[in-house]
C-alpha cells in the first residue's frame, strides 16, 4: 500500500465521519466525493459541450462531451461511480477531461439518473440510451465514424457499462461497443465473498455501505437477481465486448469483480483481469495522489490506445 493511501485511511479513521449507511441520500450527496477531494484540477481540452439525450421513457438525460483534438481516435462513453446514489458528471469533470487528453479519444460523460428517486432499472435504461446516442451521433461530433467505441465506468458505473454494452451489442446496433473498461465493478448483491469478509470495514468502502447502496438502488430483493442488476447472474453474455477489468487488492468488491472477469472469459469473451495490489475502492480518484493508482491509469490508457489503433 502506498504511504499516501495509508495516510488517507488514517485520516478517514480519525475524522470519525458518519458512514453512508447511517445517513440519507441527501446527506451522502452533500459530502464531497473522493474525486473532488483528490484528483486535482481539470486540464484544458480542445472543446467541451453539454448535451442531453432521451432515455427509454423520454426523459432527457444530461451528458458532457470532451473533444481533445481535431481528430479523436475513438469515443469513450463514461459512467461515473457512486453506488447509483451519488456522483455526477461535474464531480468527474477533471478525470474525464484528463482521460480525453491522455487517450486521444473523445469522451461522453453521462449524468444518468440516481437512486432512490430513480431505482433499477432506470439507470440501466439511461446507460443503454447513452450508448445508442453516442453510436448515432458520433459522426457529427468527431467529423467521421469513430474507429472504436468504448464503454467505461468505475464501481456502480462499471456495472452500468458492462450491462449496457451487452444489451447494446445484442440489439445489433450499427456501431457496436468494441471494448469495455470496468474498474472495481459491482457485479453481485450477495455480500458473502472472501474480500467482503476480509475488508468489511476500514478500507473506505464498507460492507454496510454497499448494503445501503443496494437498498437505495434495488430495494426489491428478487430484482437484484436480474442479470441487468447483478451481471454475475447473467446466463447469456453473448454480445459482451472484449474487457479490461481492474480490481483493488484491498476492496470488498475485489472477489465479485474478478469472478465476473472469469465468467466473461468462460463465455469466450477476450478479457484481461488485473488485480491492483495495495489499492482500495475508488482508486480512480487517487491517480494524481498515490503512485500505484497512477500506474493503474497508465495501464487503462495503454489498453484504450491499443484498441483504438487496431
Mind telling me the CATH superfamily name? Alpha/Beta hydrolase fold, catalytic domain
Low-confidence stretches: none
**Beta-strand percentage?**
15-25%
**Number of helical elements:** 10
Instruction: Report the end-to-end length measured between terminal Cα atoms.
Output: 35 Å
Strand order of the largest sheet: 1-2-4-3-5-6-7-8
Share of helical residues: 25-40%
Overall mean confidence score, pLDDT: 95
CATH top level label:
Alpha Beta
Which radius of gyration do the C-alpha atoms yield? 18 Å
Mind summarizing the main beta sheet? 8 strands, mixed
**What global shape is seen?**
globular
What is the string of helix and strand elements? HHHEEEHEHEHEHHEHEH
The count of strands amounts to 8
Specify the structural class. alpha/beta
* CATH topology descriptor: Rossmann fold
CATH architecture: 3-Layer(aba) Sandwich
| Total number of distinct structural domains | 1
Explain this structure.
With 310 residues, the chain is α/β, with parallel strands linked by helices. The protein has a single domain (3-309), classed as 3-Layer(aba) Sandwich (Rossmann fold). It has helices spanning 3-15, 25-30, 34-38, 93-103, 122-142, 156-170, 194-198, 207-217, 254-266, 291-309; strands at 47-54, 60-67, 75-79, 106-110, 149-154, 179-183, 243-248, 271-276. Strand 7 (243-248), helix 9 (254-266) and strand 8 form a beta-alpha-beta unit. Helix 5 crosses helix 6. The longest helix has 21 residues, at 122-142. 53% of the residues are buried.
Structure described in brief:
Helix content is 38%, strand content 16%. The chain is an alpha/beta fold and 310 residues long.
Amino acid at each position: 500500500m502506498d504511504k499516501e493511501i495509508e495516510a488517507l485511511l488514517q485520516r478517514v479513521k480519525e475524522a470519525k465521519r458518519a458512514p453512508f449507511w447511517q445517513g440519507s441520500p441527501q446527506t451522502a450527496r452533500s459530502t464531497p466525493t473522493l474525486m473532488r477531494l483528490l484528483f486535482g484540477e481539470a486540464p484544458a481540452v480542445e472543446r467541451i459541450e453539454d448535451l442531453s439525450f432521451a432515455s427509454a421513457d423520454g426523459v432527457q438525460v444530461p451528458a458532457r462531451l470532451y473533444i481533445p483534438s481535431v481528430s479523436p481516435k475513438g469515443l469513450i462513453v463514461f459512467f461515473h461511480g457512486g453506488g447509483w446514489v451519488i456522483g455526477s458528471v461535474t464531480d468527474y469533470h477533471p478525470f474525464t477531461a484528463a482521460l480525453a487528453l491522455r487517450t486521444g479519444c473523445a469522451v461522453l460523460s453521462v449524468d444518468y439518473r440516481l437512486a432512490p428517486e430513480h431505482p433499477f432499472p432506470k439507470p440501466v435504461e439511461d446507460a443503454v440510451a447513452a450508448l445508442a446516442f453516442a453510436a448515432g451521433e458520433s459522426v457529427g461530433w468527431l467529423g467521421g465514424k469513430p474507429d472504436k467505441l468504448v464503454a467505461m465506468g468505475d464501481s456502480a458505473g462499471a456495472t452500468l457499462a458492462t450491462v449496457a454494452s451487452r444489451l447494446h451489442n445484442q440489439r445489433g446496433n450499427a456501431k457496436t461497443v468494441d471494448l469495455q473498461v470496468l474498474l472495481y465493478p459491482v457485479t453481485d448483491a450477495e455480500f458473502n465473498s472472501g474480500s467482503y469478509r476480509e475488508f468489511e470495514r476500514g478500507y473506505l468502502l464498507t460492507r454496510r455501505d454497499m448494503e445501503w447502496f443496494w437498498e437505495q438502488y434495488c430495494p426489491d430483493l428478487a430484482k437484484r437477481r436480474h442479470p441487468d442488476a447483478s451481471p454475475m447472474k447473467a446466463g447469456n453474455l453473448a454480445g459482451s465486448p472484449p474487457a479490461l477489468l481492474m480490481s483493488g487488492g484491498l476492496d470488498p468488491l475485489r472477489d465479485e469483480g474478478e469472478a465476473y472477469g472469469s465468467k466473461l472469459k468462460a463465455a469466450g469473451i477476450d478479457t484481461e483481469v488485473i488485480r491492483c495490489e495495495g489499492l482500495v475502492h475508488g482508486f480512480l480518484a487517487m491517480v494524481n495522489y498515490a503512485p500505484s493508482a497512477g500506474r493503474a491509469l497508465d495501464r487503462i490508457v495503454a489498453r484504450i490506445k491499443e484498441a483504438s489503433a487496431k
